[in-house]
Specification:
Layout lengths: L7 H11 L19 E5 L2 E6 L2 E3 L1 E6 L7 H4 L2 H7 L4 E7 H4 L9 H12 L3 E11 L8 H4 L7 E3 L5 E5 L4 H22 L5 E8 L12 H7 L5 H9 L6 H8 L9 H5 L3 H26 L4 E6 L20 H7 L5 E6 L3 H8 L8 E4 L2 H4 L2 H7 L5 E7 L9 H21 L3 E5 L7 E5 L2 E7 L4 E2 L5 E2 L2 E8 L2 E7 L1 E7 L6 E13 L2 E8 L10 E3 L7 E10 L1
Parallel strand pairs: 4-5, 4-13, 5-6, 6-9, 9-10, 10-11, 11-12, 12-13
Antiparallel strand pairs: 1-2, 2-3, 7-8, 14-19, 15-16, 16-21, 17-18, 19-20, 20-25, 21-24, 22-23, 22-25
Helix pairs in contact: 7-12, 9-13, 12-13, 16-17
Amino acid sequence: MLPRSFRTIRRSVLAAALGLFAVAPLSSQTPSRSTAPHLERRGAATQLIVDGKPFLMLAGELGNNAATTMEAVRPIWTNLVAMHLNTALIALSWAQIEPKEGEFDWSLVDGLLQGARDNHLHVVFLWFGSWKNTWSSYAPDWVKADYTRFPRTRQRNGTPDERLTPLSTVNRDADARAFAALMQHTRAVDAETHTVLMMQVENEVGSIPDARDYSPVANDAFAKPVPKALVDDLVAHKDTLAPDLRAAWQTSNFRTNGTWEELFGKALTTDEFFMAWHYATYINAVADAGKQAYDIPMFANAALIRTSYVPGQYNSGGPLPQSFDIWHAGAPRLDMLAPDIYFNFKEWTAKYDRPDNPLFVPETFGGAAGAPNAFYALGHEDAMGFSPFGIGGEPDATDVLGPIYDALAQLTPLILEHQSSGTGMDAVVVDGLTRAQRIRVGDYTLDLTPLGAGGATSRGAETPPFGLFIATGPNEYVMAGSGLGIKFTPETPGASYVGLGTVQEGRFVDGRWVTSRQLGGDDTGQGTALSLRGTPHGPGMLRVTLYRYQ
């Protein structure tokens, strides 16, 4: 089944119900979805398609203000190339794009695109419009200064915040007009080049320090019936709703009319669901305006929940798992909801990798501890991309991400192929909670035992043990990683014992395997023990054949 975001009927129904912001029709030269970057279900995975081919984003996000001038960003490009990135995530501020109402400045956008092209890089732009990390600090001065025309949220005690309320159609439409202008300009300068792959719409939205907005317009909406468009969607997906949402609704015996508290109870979670709907529909209107101008993939990102936090202590109403159903109902023009992960990486990727939500990790931690997660995201969760935050500094002798991306770039054709097939590939990162592991890859179970720390992925940087394993034939594997001992057990009928045949160290050059060293019995326990170790230049890479005997 295709993700909800691909259901065009649902989109049109919701658009009619919400009265979405409209942009003037564009010329017949608008790129078709088949030529512009887009998402496509290919076999078992949803993949990003660029120039007709699947594309795997080996990305990094620049610091929020790292690319606000061409002078600031100019030295960064070569660093990104040196780290083997193919995509840069770059923030664009509404304040810089539209410093005066109705007057747009495209010099920075055009400069960033030219810099990316000169360095053979792609770009994902992050639209810091109405909100960045809940605040409206990247909105233009003409918006921030006119609090009457552009109303703010208010705390429970009446204190105003420097946050635009998502319940204002005036706020929404001003943002949507600016974003539509940005996308129309992007189409005009990039429709043939496809430098820009995707757009993030706003950044880590949500309500803090209260679980909801207490402005007059919000209080009025909260006291009114839950919108019929949302109720109808919940009814249609009643059996598959997120547990927290279903449990809250069940308290009213799945009532289909009434206020938010009458349907979901008097609780902070109800405040969160209320805000989720209004953030989602607001962002959907912005995304819709942009897609009418240039239809490329768009997503919203989420700041994740710390243990024991309650709504308002975290970004209440953001695109979090408990509110997925509300976001999918309210924002069908978004192609995915994406997690910004700084803890519990495996747990969060599993929650966002869903049949109705393809996985992209737009922001995460890098370094020795985090960079190996790229293997896990791409090889285990079939993510379309991975992007540590704060990229752009000059790589040094302890750089970890660069060598890891170098290995992944070599393996990209195999990764994309096996993502699509849904078989014959898996990846692990051994953290403090999971030591020895068993995975099934192809016709064999692999028992993986840490050899200690992952070792040197680049000139001495310590990493946890990690590995990516791909079955390239019935008894053939390509693998990359560091710090793992491997034992193979057959899972198909035949002889019970497994021996190591040919074991080669090497790399892929232009898609062709090049052997640097063939390992004999002295390096493989006389054909009984396989070790995946890092090298002074990055993760180790092996090509291995097996045989069976009785």
